[in-house]
């Protein structure tokens, strides 16, 4: 596990996006294709902007999966992660080979099975992830399931997670935030060859500290990233503000 601290979210995104681009290029050279996982939310704005702007990526050889989606939320809703990815990524890269989006408006169990079958056929080269204010990884809120082998699972969102979605402006009221979602599982995320974890903002500082300095525990879901052989945290001064000096040295 590596930690890269930047001045602000813009610099963070540029650094994380550039590294992700290089991993994708290398995977295409070695394998003839690249399989990627994308996160959504405000923490990924700058990272995705940088990735889209990168040159010399043959996107026609890239397959994309994403981490999570609310159950029952229409794709037209501002908080829909499918809508987010369509607008911020897919519409700018029409040549992308394939995008496997999570449909939260269909039968959730069947959708988990469909996506699970697909991702097992596409070994992931790089996963771009973030962590939540409660330390969640994807929508695996604490106490997260570290044991399930299922690639995609149905999860219940906790109060802190739902308040974060409201606070970021995706919903008009707390009651509007769904209670259930489909999420990529912890074990599936960890199967990615490379993981890039972009975490800007002071409100994530405690979650960052717990993820990097606590013992690995499902009470701090993103702490499991300590176990991955090639994971880099990209932080800014605000999100890294509670870390011990020896961690960032």
Task: Label this structure with key terms.
globular; alpha/beta; Rossmann fold; three-stranded antiparallel β-sheet; 19% strand; 249 residues; seven-stranded parallel β-sheet
Summarize the structure in words:
The mean pLDDT is 96. The strands form two sheets. A seven-stranded parallel β-sheet has the order 1-10-9-6-2-3-5, sandwiched between helices. It has helices at 9-31, 45-53, 81-88, 108-119, 159-167, 186-190, 205-213, 245-248, and strands at residues 2-6, 34-38, 62-66, 68-70, 98-100, 126-129, 152-156, 180-184, 194-199, 231-236. It is globular. It has a single domain (2-241), classed as 3-Layer(aba) Sandwich (Rossmann fold), CATH 3.40.50.1360. With 249 residues, the protein is of the alpha/beta class. The longest helix has 23 residues, at 9-31. It contains eight helices and ten strands.
Nutshell version of this structure?
It contains eight helices and ten strands. The chain has 249 residues and is an alpha/beta fold.
Topology:
Blueprint: E1 2-6, H1 9-31, E2 34-38, H2 45-53, E3 62-66, E4 68-70, H3 81-88, E5 98-100, H4 108-119, E6 126-129, E7 152-156, H5 159-167, E8 180-184, H6 186-190, E9 194-199, H7 205-213, E10 231-236, H8 245-248
Parallel strand pairs: 1-10, 2-3, 2-6, 3-5, 6-9, 9-10
Antiparallel strand pairs: 4-8, 7-8
Ranges where pLDDT stays below 50 over 5 or more residues in a row are none
Mean pLDDT: 96
Radius of gyration: 17 Å
What is the percentage of strand-forming residues? Answer: 15-25%
Number of helices, counting only DSSP H or I runs of 4 residues or more: 8
CATH top-level class: Alpha Beta
Question: What structural category arises from helix and sheet content?
Answer: alpha/beta
Domain tally: 1
Number of strands: 10
What is the CATH architecture assignment?
3-Layer(aba) Sandwich
Do you know the CATH topology?
Rossmann fold
For the largest beta-sheet, the strand count, sense and barrel status come to:
7 strands, parallel
What level of helicity do the residues show?
25-40%
The helix-strand sequence is EHEHEEHEHEEHEHEHEH
What overall geometry do the principal axes of the alpha carbons give?
globular
Strand order in space, largest sheet: 1-10-9-6-2-3-5
Distance between the termini: 13 Å
């Amino acid at each position: 596990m590596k930690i890269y601290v930047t001045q602000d979210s813009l610099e963070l995104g540029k650094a994380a996006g550039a590294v992700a681009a290089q991993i994708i290029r290398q995977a295409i050279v070695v394998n003839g294709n690249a399989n990627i996982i994308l996160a959504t939310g405000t923490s990924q704005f700058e990272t995705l902007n940088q990735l889209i702007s990168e040159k010399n990526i043959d996107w026609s050889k890239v397959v994309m999966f994403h981490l999570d989606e609310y159950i029952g939320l229409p794709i037209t809703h501002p908080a829909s992660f499918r809508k987010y990815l369509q607008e911020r990524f897919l519409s700018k890269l029409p040549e992308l080979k394939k995008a496997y989006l999570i449909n939260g408006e269909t039968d959730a169990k069947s959708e988990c099975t469909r996506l699970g079958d697909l991702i097992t056929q596409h070994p992931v080269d790089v996963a771009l992830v973030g962590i939540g204010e409660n330390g969640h990884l994807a929508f695996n809120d604490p106490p997260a399931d570290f044991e399930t082998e299922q690639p995609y699972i149905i999860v219940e969102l906790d109060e802190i997670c739902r308040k974060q979605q409201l606070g970021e402006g995706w919903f008009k009221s707390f009651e509007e935030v769904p209670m259930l979602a489909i999420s990529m599982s912890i074990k599936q995320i960890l199967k990615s060859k490379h993981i890039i974890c972009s975490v800007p903002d002071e409100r994530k500082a405690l979650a960052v500290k717990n993820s990097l300095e606590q013992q690995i525990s499902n009470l701090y879901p993103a702490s499991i990233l300590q176990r991955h052989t090639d994971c880099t945290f990209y932080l800014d001064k605000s999100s890294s503000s509670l870390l011990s000096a020896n961690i960032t040295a």
